[in-house]
Prior knowledge:
Blueprint lengths: L17 H43 L25
Amino acid sequence: xxEDMPKGWVKPVAKPTPETLKARIAExxxxxxxxxxxxxxxxxxxxxxxxxxxxxLMRAFELTPADLGLEPTPKRRGRPRKSTG
Length: 85
């Protein structure tokens, strides 16, 4: 006999029932939803932190969005006006 083999009586392990599997799935889904929420918060925090750093650098070097080759954001939201041409 090898050393890996259990000696003596081994307690049998019951097969999972559909109900226990469904309960476990519900448990894991709840855990997943919580983890996804935490991830969204972390990503949002990192995004805001990056924006603050970029704005601070732009102020420090007196740069505008045009200096960076960015198009200015439109002042008016909604559909663009019709051209009269």
